[in-house]
Each structure stands twice: as structure tokens, then as C-alpha cells.
């Protein structure tokens, strides 16, 4: 509980710092949201109307006053309203987030189904043909950009064969191509990570002791070696989960998938500051929570950490 309380304090300080930096840089970026709101390029608008809207939105006030006003609303759980849709930012993010979360989960499932068996077999049969195949897969996966892989999938499975849809969100079929694109790109990292972690663990003294006690090879592998080797994998897994939630932007735009990533790209183009600020804080909060859960999982995977905590008490 003490660790969780400390992390919660760090979380508040992190969000304050993140909100201030993002707010300042967002205001300093080129572009004028007033032009998009009033649609100046298509309709004749007077200077008086422009200044009136600036005053209404608070753009004419000093930036520290703007940030202070935003911060007061933030502590009231109010992230403002979207300039484009006039809907609350929290509602907009909550409406799009389930789609991004679904894409993230399916991508991680694809990654797990590829990386775990191949990485495990590569470690068990070191320098055999399966190990060489895993190296080739990892090399290709690390070398090919995800957006280019997505374009290949669209060209082959959607345009030529017509098997799978390439745009939008509806049925499970709409998830296959973007999930494969993200999952294959991730699996390259985890194949090599799991292989090296397993090989290092299999050479540890406690594995040799387990063999000397006559434990079966299957029990040694699954209940000792595999569990112990998951610690570095889970560390990277937490980073991957956070980066997937915040980094599916390119894939969502490529496949016209209506998630949070596509929403924030549209917000950046239209200078929709409340949506951009809300997205940054939402992703920052989610990543910190994921890292906290990863740290807590170490206590379950490594009994030595629990013993050290007991000794400190």
C-alpha cells in the first residue's frame, strides 16, 4: 500500500508537469483554431467576429492565465469541449477508446500467438532450424515498417483477393488486417527477447538444482524457467501496451479505423486544443497505471522480491 501511495503522488506530479509542457507547446505551435471553427476559408468573416470568438475562448489572455483556468477545470474533472463537435472531451475520448482498446488487445493476442511458441522453441532447440527461422522472422519484422506492411496487406487481401475489408469498423473481419499489422511488428521483438531470456534462465543454478532433484523436464520448464524468464518480457510488454494504445495512430489512419488515434490526428489538423490536451493526459495516465501494474506483477513472478520486502519490515 505504501508503494501504491507513493506512485499515486508521482502520478499527480507527472500529470501536472505533462499538462503544463503539452499546453505550452500546443499554444506555441503554428495554426489558428479560430479559422477552423469559423471556416474562414469558405465564408467571409469580419475581424470583429474573429476577435469576439478569441475573447470567448480566452485566447487573448496570457498563456499562464489560460493554463490556470484550464487547470481549475481539470481538477473538477472537466477537460472542456471539442471546438469541432461542441461535445465534452471526456465523452469524445470515451466514445473512441473502446475501439482502440479492442485493436490493442487483438494485436497483443496476435503477437502472443506468434512470439511465445516461436521464441520458446528457438530457446529449446538452440541453433536448430527453428532457431534460424526465428532469426529470419525477427529480422524481417524489425526491418519492415508497420505502415508499409499494412499497405501490402491491403493490396493483397483487400484489393486483389477481396477477402477482407480494409477500412472502417464493423465486424470482426475489420480487425484482422490492422491487428495482423501491429501484431507482426511487435512479435519480432518478443521472439528474440523470450529466446534470450529463456536461455539465460535455463543456465541458472536453480534450474540445475531442480534437475538434480529429479523434477521432470516439463515441470522445470513451465513452473521454473518459463515463469522466471517472463520478468523482462512483462517489462517490455507494459511498454508495448502503452505504446500501442498511444501509437496506433498511423494504423488507425491507414485503415480508417475510428479509434482514439484517428480522432487525435483530426484534432491536430483542426487545432482542436481540448481534444489534443485530453488525449495527452489520458494516455499519460494510462501508461503510468500500466507501469504500476507491471511493477506489482514482479512480486508475483519473483518470490525474492517479496522476501526482501518482508526482511525490510
TrEMBL record:
Protein name stated in the entry: Nickel import system permease protein NikB
Gene expressing this chain: nikB
Signal peptide: none
Membrane protein topology class: Multi-pass membrane protein
Assembly and oligomerization: The complex is composed of two ATP-binding proteins (NikD and NikE), two transmembrane proteins (NikB and NikC) and a solute-binding protein (NikA).
Keywords, sorted A to Z: Cell membrane, Ion transport, Membrane, Nickel, Nickel transport, Transmembrane, Transmembrane helix, Transport
Pfam families per record: BPD_transp_1, BPD_transp_1_N
Subcellular locations according to the entry: Cell membrane
Residue ranges annotated for the ABC transmembrane type-1 domain, each copy included: 97-298
CDD domains per UniProt: TM_PBP2 (cd06261)
Main location: membrane
Spans traversing the lipid bilayer: 101-124, 136-159, 171-191, 229-256, 276-298
Amino acid at each position: 500500500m505504501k508503494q501504491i501511495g507513493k506512485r499515486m503522488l508521482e502520478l499527480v506530479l507527472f500529470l501536472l508537469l505533462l499538462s503544463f509542457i503539452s499546453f505550452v507547446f500546443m499554444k506555441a505551435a503554428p495554426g489558428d483554431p479560430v479559422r477552423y471553427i469559423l471556416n474562414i476559408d469558405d465564408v467571409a468573416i469580419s475581424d470583429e467576429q474573429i476577435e469576439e470568438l478569441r475573447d470567448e475562448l480566452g485566447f487573448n489572455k496570457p498563456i499562464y492565465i489560460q493554463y490556470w483556468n484550464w487547470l481549475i477545470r481539470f481538477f473538477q474533472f472537466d477537460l472542456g469541449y471539442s471546438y469541432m463537435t461542441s461535445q465534452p472531451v471526456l465523452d469524445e475520448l470515451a466514445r473512441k477508446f473502446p475501439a482502440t482498446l479492442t485493436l490493442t488487445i487483438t494485436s497483443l493476442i496476435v503477437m502472443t500467438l506468434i512470439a511465445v511458441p516461436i521464441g520458446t522453441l528457438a530457446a529449446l532447440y538452440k541453433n536448430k532450424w527453428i532457431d534460424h527461422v526465428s532469426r529470419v522472422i525477427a529480422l524481417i519484422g524489425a526491418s519492415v515498417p508497420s505502415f508499409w506492411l499494412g499497405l501490402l496487406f491491403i493490396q493483397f487481401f483487400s484489393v486483389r483477393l477481396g477477402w477482407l475489408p480494409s477500412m472502417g469498423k464493423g465486424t470482426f473481419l475489420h480487425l484482422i488486417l490492422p491487428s495482423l499489422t501491429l501484431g507482426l511488428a511487435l512479435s519480432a521483438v518478443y521472439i528474440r527477447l523470450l529466446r534470450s531470456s529463456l536461455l539465460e534462465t535455463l543456465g541458472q543454478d536453480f534450474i540445475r538444482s531442480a534437475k538434480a532433484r529429479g523434477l521432470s523436464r516439463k515441470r522445470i520448464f513451465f513452473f521454473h524457467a518459463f515463469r522466471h524468464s517472463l520478468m523482462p518480457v512483462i517489462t517490455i510488454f507494459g511498454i508495448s501496451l502503452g505504446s500501442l494504445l498511444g501509437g496506433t495512430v498511423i494504423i488507425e489512419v491507414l485503415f480508417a479505423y475510428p479509434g482514439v488515434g484517428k480522432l487525435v490526428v483530426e484534432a491536430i489538423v483542426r487545432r482542436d486544443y481540448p481534444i489534443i490536451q485530453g488525449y495527452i493526459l489520458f494516455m499519460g495516465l494510462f501508461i503510468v497505471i500500466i507501469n504500476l501494474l507491471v511493477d506489482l506483477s514482479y512480486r508475483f513472478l519473483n518470490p525474492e522480491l517479496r522476501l526482501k520486502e518482508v526482511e525490510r519490515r
